Amino acid sequence: MSREGLGLPRGIGQRDYGAMSSTAATTSDGNFGGFSPTEFISLSESIAANTIFVKQSWQFLEKANRTLGTAKDNQSLRDKINDIQTGTNQRIATTTKDLQRLTVVVRGGDKQQKLQVEKLTSDFKQVVQFYSKSQQSIAAKMKQVFLVNASQVDDLMASETGIAGTAEQQQELQKQKQLQQSLQFEQDMLLEREQRFREIEANVLDVNHIMRELSNLTSQQSEVIDTIENSIGRTVDNVESGAEELVKAAEYQNRYRRKVLILLIVAVILGLVVTGIIVSKLKS
């Protein structure tokens, strides 16, 4: 079974899964809210790349799941499945930490950056959900195949025990020895398969724990976005209230000016009247 035949993504199927983690150092140039935009970009790109990686792993598991239990099922395939799940789970754990870090970094950013982080988290959470379902399906199928193999071993034990009971004494001893060797081999195989099944089951549990962390992270980000929207709403209300106050102030100022103008006109008229009276008295 070739890796390409199952659509195995490039770089998967090996034990070394260097996660594309990016805990970039904070720099002092162009900081927003005390954090570097360079770190924001680096974390965002890393999370997006890891999301694609997990998606490719999920697609491989879907193809491998259809191969389990068929004539093409072999130990090499199961080794690859275990390797992929181990490496992908490490990548998921690293990306979860990057998302937590990015949530802290973006607190000093603007609304658009916060919405970008929310989308990255949503996309990553969705692909991890698909991946987790594939893991659970593979674990169930491997358990089913394991139980079938155990039943076949029981049938072999019963069959060979019956043959040994009807043979001659010497042949009996020889066949019992062969039977013990066969049973020991089968038992070792069953123990090894059971161990591998436990590893896959443990990987599924790890992903479930991470899913809970992602759900909590999504809730925190939603609260941050709600807070931003509320702040914007309060700002709009304050601006509207300020505009209303300015309109009222303008009205008061216009009224004051009208009053001053009326008083000025009255004063001029009174002045003219007084002047006329004085002039008429002087003439008389």
TrEMBL record:
Q: Which family does it belong to?
A: Belongs to the syntaxin family.
Segments traversing the membrane? 260-279
Q: Which UniProt keywords apply?
A: Membrane, Neurotransmitter transport, Transmembrane, Transmembrane helix, Transport
Q: Does this entry carry the keyword Aminoacyl-tRNA synthetase?
A: no
A single Gene Ontology CC annotation of this entry is: endomembrane system
Recorded GO MF terms: SNAP receptor activity; SNARE binding
GO biological-process terms attached to the record: intracellular protein transport; neurotransmitter transport; vesicle docking; vesicle fusion
Q: What is the lineage of its organism?
A: Eukaryota, Metazoa, Ecdysozoa, Arthropoda, Hexapoda
Q: What region holds the T-SNARE coiled-coil homology domain?
A: 187-249
Q: Name one Pfam family in it.
A: SNARE
Please give the InterPro entries that the UniProt record associates with this protein: SNARE, Syntaxin, Syntaxin_N, T_SNARE_dom
Query: Mind telling me which PROSITE patterns this protein's record contains?
Result: T_SNARE
The identity of this protein, by name, is t-SNARE coiled-coil homology domain-containing protein
